[in-house]
Protein: Leucine-rich repeat-containing N-terminal plant-type domain-containing protein
Amino acid sequence: MLHSSLDLSFNFLTGSALSTVSNLKYLLHLRLQENKFSGGLPDSLSHLGMLIELQLGGNILRGSIPSALGTLLQLGTALNLSGNGLVFYIPPQLGNLVELQCLDLSFNNLLGGLATLGSLHILHALNVSYNQFSGPVPDNVLVFLNSTPSSFNGNPGLCTSCSTNNPYCNGTYVLKPCGGSNKGGAHGSKKIPPNMFRENLR
Structure:
């Protein structure tokens, strides 16, 4: 019998399980959030080509986001990597996930720009707070500065380049203008991660 979902979320599971679950190539939903899984994100996650939801938030994962995640073209419901210790940049291959609706990268140590998110045009939930992102916010992401401005907190280097005819610029007071010196709401101390994708998962 083929199983389309694996939900081990909200336990105290330890170890490095991601290489093992990568063999479950028919999975649609993988929910391992809020455990104590450690290690890195293996390239073998790309074997889960049917996956539409990947929940790995709230573990002890380290290292970079592998470019291989960009091959999971069916990933649409959610990609949650929040509350880990991930570092370096968002790989440009994540821009291939054009069906993605919810993305949570908050509470990591990611850096660089958000240009890759410019390809994700059907996002309806985004959280990049409390990282080390910098540079301009892509135009298609400006809508979240109005709906969920706290999703950008904790990234002092982020800024906006807003044209006056952009209807989503009303909430950009939470970030400084690019090239300006205004203090914005992207500054701030860390706090408990928001439960962005942690409801109605079980």
About this structure: Confidence is low (pLDDT under 50) at residues 187-192, 196-202. The chain has two helices and 14 strands. The CA atoms of residues 35 and 202 lie 14 Å apart. Residues 5-134 form a domain with the Leucine-rich repeat, LRR (right-handed beta-alpha superhelix) fold (CATH 3.80.10.10).
